[in-house]
Write a structure and sequence with these properties.
Order of helices and strands: HHHHHHHH
Radius of gyration: 23 Å
Shape: elongated
Largest sheet: none
Strand content: under 5%
Length: 140
């Protein structure tokens, strides 16, 4: 895929108009229209800005490859592998339930940070904590 096509696809994916993207880059919409038609090419600093706006690599933006985030670190810790092993055993409904529970945990963690920096062990925080078990052995 060429840059012009990739730019248009990314812009539409983010539901941005040419005008809005132009404003984000301090351009008029005609510059974006010219990029998308292939009449002009952006400078390297502008390519960096565009890649940043769409959270993609320069290679992806330029159509060199189809890898949006080539530098994402693969977490291969024993803990993560154990999580993956259990996750693979779940059926679709259980996976959906797990996703909801993880969202709950993240939201709760964010709330805890905003409530006077409470930690999980403090008495005021104990009423908000839901724990299935303290140790993995308790499940068995």
């Amino acid at each position: 895929m060429e840059f012009k096509d990739r730019l248009k696809a990314l812009r539409k994916e983010k539901k941005l108009t040419q005008v809005k993207l132009g404003e984000m880059l301090n351009y008029g919409y005609t510059a974006i229209a010219n990029y998308e038609s292939g009449r002009n090419q952006p400078s390297i600093p502008d390519l960096k800005k565009i890649a940043s706006i769409f959270n993609v690599s320069m290679d992806y933006l330029l159509g060199v490859n189809d890898i949006r985030h080539p530098y994402v670190i693969d977490d291969e810790t024993a803990e993560f592998n154990e999580f993956r092993r259990y996750y693979a055993m779940l059926n679709t409904d259980s996976k959906d339930e797990l996703m909801l529970y993880m969202q709950f945990l993240v939201d709760r963690q964010a709330r805890m940070k905003t409530q006077a920096n409470l930690s999980y062990g403090e008495p005021a925080a104990k009423g908000t904590i839901l724990r299935a078990a303290q140790k993995s052995e308790e499940y068995r």
